[in-house]
Write a structure and sequence with these properties.
heterodimer; A: mainly alpha; two-stranded antiparallel sheet; 2% strand; B: mainly alpha; 3 helices; 0% strand; elongated
Amino acid sequence: MTRRARLIVLALGGAGLAALLIAACFDLPRFGGPWHPYGDRAVHASLARRTANTIASVNFDQRAFDTVGEMSILFASVLGTVVLLRQTRDEKRALPQPEEVALPVRRYALVVLPVAFVAGLYVIAHGQLSPGGGFQGGVVAATALHLLYLGADYRALERIRPVGLYEICDALAACAYVVTGLAGVLAGTAFLANTLLPYGTFNTLSSGGIVPVLNAAIGMEVACAVVVLLARFLDQAVEIEEESGKP
Amino acid sequence: MDDPLIVVVLLLVAATATAAVAVRDPVRQALVLSVLGVALALLFTVAQAPDVGLSQLAVGSALTPLLVMLSVRKVRRRQGDGKGRAP
């Protein structure tokens, strides 16, 4: 195929896609309108299972299988990072020297660290009740730990962050999600079906059946995944350097 | 599109996104990206999607800029090594 023919095919395909997208845009419901067919059904289903946060119900009950996929994406990308950013044969580790931290930075980091960490855990724990959930809270809790790098130094961070342990916890949490789903199969319903646990009282921590369990698994998975991810990046940025004498 | 608050936040997002593209230095770009993350989180919150807003705040304004800055530091350190050893 010549360059000209390829350009014609590309132009045809692009024009068709653009026409379809524009036609679809004219049929969209108006911005901020009152008509929400999917939203109404999702809220109904979530209230029927006594989950206060409809988004959590969509993520961990109505579309729990989609969340397996999202979790696997995160897990696989962290696995890829760990493999790619490992210490290779021609690299060595240099211990970073402790450096003076400006006093206001140190005070700010050490005051905010526990607050941010507890806020992260709170967001995970209340995923089925209020906005937020395992993913958001996990990222907040994991990044909060890294304020120690700002407030103290890299070695202090390494002491509270044994990466191997976090890698194991990451895998365990991912397994916990799938095993909770398989429990439904064993009980005779379906993978990740929310029929196993009692639904509890609306708007309490233990409401929603399987939702808080899956939410907690995702929280643990995301927190550990982010810690491992940042640990690999920090290792490369701070510790690992090329062996001198090699080009 | 009647809500003035949404219009203001949309303009803010457009301005910060343009700034993120216009700034060429990766370190500054990471900082602008973090501001853009906050603006997007505001937009999602006024559009009544606080869940997405929280994700955006955590990932877009904290995690991504941090990863960019760490990568820049690694690249610059390697370049610095090369220059130091060359003479």
